Amino acid sequence: MSTSKEPYLLNVDDEASKRLNLQHDILKRMLGGTFLPSPVVKRLKIIQQSTTNDQPLKTADLATGTGARIWLYSIREELAKNGLNPELHGYDLHDNQFPPANKREGVIFDTMNVLDTDKFKAVGENYHYVHARLLTSVLTVDEWKVAIQNCLGILKPGGYLHFEEIPFGELAIERDGLPASGGVLEKLQASMILLKRDLDCGNSIRKLYEENKLEDISHDTIDLRDCDEEAKQMQNTNARLGLEEFITNAIRRGPGALKRLGFESEEAALTKMADLKASSGTQAYFVLHSILGKKP
């Protein structure tokens, strides 16, 4: 079930795949090249030692996204270094960003809406580790509760649920420490509020973990301001591409969507997009939230 009229506010196409791959590389640098939290690795090792070949380890990635540098392929390398070889399953609302069938290298892909409770019930408690990230612009405030309950429904007892999110409320574009988005970012955040997105989703997810009585909850944050210059420059490119997508999609949707972003006309939106391309000396920032919890 989904109550969102516009579930994806950014594109789902080849150009979006390039941006998502860049975003993946930024997160990899921020995380020091390691995606798997140590409690997950430790737990998977214990499970693997105690299970038989007909009960393999299973990991699911929701909103799995793109192909070439997809999260699942990155963690497979980490898992192998730790002597782990689980089945890897990737789910997404759309399949047009999945790798071609002949290039999936043993990873299983399928379509599934994170809000489709019936389909999650059909999957059942099947996974030892469930991961999802970057649903910030997709889910409304109320839909987060459904999404987390669905994720817990496919997680085995003792398994870990792991969300990684970039809250819109903590995005910033600055020059010399002062706001420098020209109002675009502020309009975007106001638009997210109108669309009932959660600008503080990191803390909201942690609270939902607590409500669902997850154990060993950890909530870590990494601020891009504390990262190296290359990561910051990569994020400048990523932020420009993302803002351009928001504006382009608003133009495509029509006057109502443009007004939600604070533009009175298509011409005004195009002018602002040109300004973004030409701007220099500014820096885009975000804060990554990593929320981990174990199902009782």
Explain the overall architecture.
- It is a single chain.
- Helix 1 (14-30) packs antiparallel against helix 8 and helix 5 (141-153) crosses helix 7.
- This protein is α/β, with parallel strands linked by helices.
- It contains ten helices and ten strands.
- The strands form two sheets. The chain has a seven-stranded mixed beta sheet with strand order 3-2-1-4-5-10-8, with helices on both faces. A three-stranded antiparallel beta sheet has the order 7-6-9.
- It has a single domain, classed as Rossmann fold, CATH 3.40.50.
- The radius of gyration is 19 Å and the shape is globular.
- It has helices at residues 14-30, 38-50, 71-81, 117-123, 141-153, 184-194, 201-211, 229-253, 255-260, 266-278; strands at 58-62, 87-92, 108-111, 127-133, 155-165, 172-175, 178-179, 215-223, 283-285, 287-294.
- Helices cover 43% and strands 20% of the residues.
Oligomer: single chain
Strand content: 15-25%
Shape: globular
According to DSSP, the number of beta strands is: 10
**Sheet having the most strands:** 7 strands, mixed
Biggest β-sheet: strands ordered side by side in the sheet: 3-2-1-4-5-10-8
Mean pLDDT: 87
Topology:
Layout: H1 14-30, H2 38-50, E1 58-62, H3 71-81, E2 87-92, E3 108-111, H4 117-123, E4 127-133, H5 141-153, E5 155-165, E6 172-175, E7 178-179, H6 184-194, H7 201-211, E8 215-223, H8 229-253, H9 255-260, H10 266-278, E9 283-285, E10 287-294
Parallel strand pairs: 1-2, 1-4, 2-3, 4-5
Antiparallel strand pairs: 5-10, 6-7, 6-9, 8-10
